[in-house]
Amino acid sequence: MIEADSVWYSYSDKAVLKGASLSIGNGITVLVGPNGAGKTTLLKVMAGIYRPDSGRVFIDEEDLWACPPPRRVELRRRVVYVHEKPIVLRGSVFFNVCYGLMLRGLDREEVRRRALEVMEKLGIKALAWKNARELSAGQAQLMVLARALAVEPKYLLLDEPLANLDKENRELVLGLLEVLKSKGLGVGVATHDKLLALRIADKIALMEEGRVVVEGSPRDLKDYL
Amino acid sequence: MSFMEEVVEIAFRSLAVSGLATLMASIWSIPLAAVLTHSKSRFCRTVLDVLNAMIGVPTVLIGLLLYLLLSRTGPLGIFNLLYTPLAISFGQAILITPLLISLAAEHLGRVRESVSELALSLGATRVQMATTVIREAGPQLVSTALVAFNRAIGELGVALMVGGDIRRFTRVMTTAIALEVEKGEFELALALGGILLFITILVTVAVRAFGRVR
């Protein structure tokens, strides 16, 4: 389980998170709230990308920022955060999908096998040798998802994962989330789409002004949304 | 020595001297630019502002300072570097350092923000993160080095003051052109000017090509 405990975070002098607490365990936890509520920042803090100004982040019950740096890297490798706007590295689609695997020092054959396997699942194997910066927004979104899944994380944090996808690919990704959930993966999704939250979530957390104001099952929160 | 041999020798010396200057300056400037962009402290921002302001420092001023440093009675006089090709390389390296740091910092800063987040999100160590940022900024850094090389090969003040324009030893294209014009020998000056222009255009084309790499 990933837990954020009374987390504060500021950009320059502007506090974006003001004591936010949330836990993401098995199943799909959807974070909903208006723009600027702090959803993205909270996910980045929970992924260990940002260090909170105060408060703590636990990954599988270990305090991330109290660990020595090598242990922190090990803990961070259990979590993958996928940005709303796909970040594409210079090179082919295949290289991009392999990147996370290469960071883990896996052997070349294993990297290749896992990358091709996940690309096949997401229907982008035919794009493998295409320049990644020439992909459409939807293709790029699938590529970054493939890059995240290739490393087989224990927790997957997705920021507006359906933002650039057409109807067909939305269904593909939603189906994939169900599969991941059934495999016991913990998924955190930030979105402002309340209908999506009601459709896929096992747990919904509503954020406002840097805090999680209420959380519960979709049934419990239906009236809030 | 024939006219052609002399032209070729001077051209190759210029390329070697300015190439070495660019290499030396890149070795210290690019890591320094990475450090300055990584830190968000006020001190680092001030250093970058000062370096930006120093891009336009007159080459003769740097030549004069280096002359004082390298002359026999100067603090670095014991190395006997004055009037050697190495002194010119060293001087040109100092001349292009602010330009290299400013441009590299700009490119690295642009790449760093998004790429370092991506690297961290996929479990990179700090070293892996830095390597990824440099890899992503690679073509722009090469293009920056080429811009600096163009500045170095085209400068006159440093080459004249610390090189001394010694025939078959420290004479480079710019000092040779100045000397030949002074003597009224326009043939050699024009030949060297043509080569200098060709190199400058070639490098500019390469800079644009690297800038377009996606």
Q: Could you outline the blueprint of secondary structure elements for this entry?
A:
The complex is a heterodimer of chains A (225) and B (214).
Chain A: E1 2-11, E2 14-24, E3 27-32, H1 39-46, E4 54-59, E5 62-63, H2 69-76, E6 79-82, H3 93-103, H4 108-121, H5 137-150, E7 155-159, H6 167-182, E8 186-191, H7 194-200, E9 203-208, E10 211-216, H8 218-221
Parallel strand pairs in A: 3-8, 3-9, 6-7, 7-8
Antiparallel strand pairs in A: 1-2, 1-4, 4-5, 9-10
Chain B: H1 3-38, H2 42-53, H3 59-70, H4 85-121, H5 126-153, H6 157-163, H7 173-183, H8 186-212
Helix pairs in contact in B: 1-4, 1-5, 1-8, 2-4, 3-4, 3-6, 4-5, 4-6, 5-8, 7-8
Task: Please tell me about this protein's structure.
The complex is a heterodimer of chains A (225) and B (214). Chain A is built from 8 helices and 10 strands. With 225 residues, chain A is an alpha/beta fold. The longest helix of chain A is centred in the C-terminal third of the chain and has 16 residues, at 167-182. The two termini of chain A are 25 Å apart. Chain B is mostly helical. In chain B, 79% of the residues lie in helices and 0% in strands. Chain B has 8 helices and no strands. Chain B has helices at 3-38, 42-53, 59-70, 85-121, 126-153, 157-163, 173-183, 186-212. In chain B, helix 2 (42-53) packs antiparallel against helix 4 and helix 3 packs across helix 4 (85-121). The mean pLDDT of chain B is 91. Chains A and B meet through helix 2, strand 6 and helix 3 of A and helix 4 and helix 5 of B.
